[in-house]
Design brief:
By secondary structure, this protein is α+β, with helices and mostly antiparallel strands. It has helices at 49-64, 85-92, 152-158, 182-192, 212-215, 220-243, 258-271, 291-306, 432-449, 459-463, 473-477, 513-519, and strands spanning 5-7, 19-24, 30-37, 68-73, 78-84, 97-101, 105-109, 115-117, 124-128, 137-138, 170-175, 199-203, 248-253, 275-278, 280-283, 310-314, 332-333, 341-348, 354-356, 358-359, 372-373, 377-383, 403-406, 409-412, 421-422, 425-426, 478-479, 510-511. The strands form nine sheets. Strands 11, 12, 13, 14, 16, 18, 19 and 24 form an eight-stranded mixed β-sheet that branches. Helix 6 (220-243) runs parallel beside helix 9 and helix 7 runs parallel beside helix 8. The protein is globular, with a radius of gyration of 22 Å. It starts with a strand and ends with a helix.
């Protein structure tokens, strides 16, 4: 088929830095993609006529290239299509190949920009799933638990949780790989004297191993990743389960490529939970993100916020460097989106004081358990939203514009960590991967106690809004963290300072749950 194609803006992807192209993808290999359409996420039950027309036209063109349209999601504007690698190459000029990297093993990928049939110009905004490179990195690193780690009861006392168990609330958790071990959840709940909740595992395009035996049957590279991520997956689940045992908890599992993000968010938008916990991310300016991916993920985060879902996202565990070793300051995405609640980290120091999390060298280092620091800073991709205009934090990068500042709030991330269970044994863990689900659970508990007309509201802008006393809700409902190390991670040797009031290391501070309920 010989038709005119045009470049798809924002689709350029450089070669993955640590990967080598081994060969062309087999022409007959099956490929599934998610094609995104122009326009914002539509309100629930309201699909504009133009979206229907765009979807019909896109479907006809894709089918002309031998692709099968498997699903149309009209509210977010997504079309799922499948076909052979050869058909995908013809439709999108992708030149698909098989690559290898030490971290990921073999995966399908591409380089350069995509092209789309000219008649879809201005209609199709992204094509996701052709390239399977990883763009989701886990953000991980004295109470009464194992070795002094904090139990759920400790956390409820520390952060003054309001009464309740999350009954009637929907809480979603996003996972991009890993395992789900129901036996560990049961053992954890028994150890903490908490009821075992009902947890729904939702395979999006990845069905996680449900036991250690299943995980060990995976290919070596997949097995290594699944087992390394298992502890963090179960951490998310156990924190939410312990604090909201009566909530409706759904755990979405997707592949860790760009398409995985789109697929998870489309489903969350449809479910409309009170909160979504996300403990994955990557520096917003990492070249492995394409421009279209940032745009389309952010569009869906906006859609979720418009429907009242507060997406609680880890701000990162590598300080202002965010694992980019160029001497500049960076922030993590999707934490840097204006449509999420960005959650940073604290720790308890030797004196028993809660301070900003920083353990040398301020970033995660293998062989140094607990190393890391709270991610935070000023976005270079997203302008400062209206609700943050009063925040006086400048970027550490010379010449940078006035961007979105993160985090919004914080919670325990560093020592002494959270009391958790893995493989049937105590396994304390933390990082901002833990502080994000804590906030997701807390806000669900608060939401359950609010009058109906004040439920299901996107929390972040409300934190910056002043009450009748002229004090922002974030200040009134959080305990300020004014002590601790800056979030420099060496290299780079730059970091944002911790100071009284709002700062770019711990945000407004850590929650006072009862004060948050009262303020809302």
């Amino acid at each position: 088929m010989s038709e005119q194609h045009v470049a798809l803006a924002g689709s350029t992807r450089p070669a993955k830095a640590d990967a080598t192209r081994l060969r062309d993808a087999d022409a007959h290999d099956p490929v599934t993609v998610t094609v995104t359409l122009r326009g914002k996420v539509a309100p629930a039950g309201q699909v504009p006529e133009g979206r229907l027309q765009d979807a019909a036209k896109t479907k006809a063109v894709l089918e002309r290239y031998g692709l099968t349209v498997d699903e149309e999601r009209l509210e977010p504007g997504s079309i799922v299509a499948s076909g052979s690698a050869a058909a995908m190459n013809a439709a999108f000029k992708a030149d698909l190949g098989i690559y290898h990297s030490a971290e990921q093993g073999e995966f399908r990928g591409r380089e350069g920009e995509l092209k789309i049939p000219a008649e879809l110009e201005g209609i199709v905004t992204g094509v996701f799933g052709l390239d399977q490179r990883q763009v989701a990195r886990r953000l991980v690193a004295g109470g009464s638990g194992f070795q002094g780690s904090f139990t759920p009861e400790d956390l409820e006392l520390l952060y003054n949780f309001p009464t309740g168990d999350g009954a009637g609330q929907k809480i979603a958790i996003a996972e991009f790989g890993g395992c789900y071990f129901d036996d560990d959840l049961r053992a954890f709940c028994a150890a903490q004297n908490r009821p075992v909740p009902r947890v729904e595992v939702v395979p999006v395009d990845f069905d996680p191993p449900r036991s250690l035996q299943e995980a060990r049957q995976l290919p070596p590279a997949e097995q290594k990743f699944a087992l390394e991520a298992a502890g963090e997956v179960m951490m998310d689940v156990q924190i939410v389960a312990a604090l909201c045992p009566a909530a409706e908890i759904s755990v979405y599992f997707a592949d860790f490529d760009q398409r995985g993000w789109i697929e998870v968010l489309d489903r969350v938008i449809a479910q409309q939970p009170v909160t979504l916990s996300v403990s994955w991310g990557l520096a917003e300016d990492d070249p492995n993100w394409s421009g279209t991916a940032l745009d389309q993920i952010n569009k869906r985060l906006e859609g979720a916020a418009d429907r009242g879902t507060t997406v609680c996202v880890s701000s990162g565990d590598d300080g202002a460097g965010d694992q980019v070793m160029d001497g500049r300051a960076h922030v993590d995405f999707p934490s840097s989106s204006p449509f999420v609640l960005s959650v940073g980290g604290t720790m308890i120091d030797a004196s028993g004081t809660e301070v900003s999390w920083w353990v040398a060298p301020g970033r995660r280092v293998r062989g140094k358990p607990g190393s890391g620091s709270s991610g935070g800073g000023v976005s270079t991709k997203f302008e400062r939203p209206d609700y943050q205009q009063q925040i006086n934090v400048d970027s550490l990068n010379p010449g940078a514009f006035k961007g979105r500042v993160v985090p919004d709030v914080s919670a325990l991330a560093g020592p002494p960590f959270y009391d958790l269970t893995l493989f049937g044994a105590p396994e304390p863990n933390g990082g901002t991967s833990a502080s994000a689900p804590l906030w997701a659970a807390l806000y669900a508990r608060v939401n359950a106690l609010l009058p109906q007309q004040k439920q299901q509201r996107f929390l972040t802008p409300l934190l910056y809004r002043s009450g009748n006393n002229g004090v922002p809700l974030g200040q009134a409902a959080c305990r300020d963290i004014a002590e601790g190390h800056d979030n420099a991670s060496h290299p780079p040797a730059v970091g944002y300072p911790v100071k009284p009031g709002y700062d770019a290391v711990t945000g407004w501070g850590v929650p006072d749950g009862t004060a948050l309920e009262k303020g809302l």
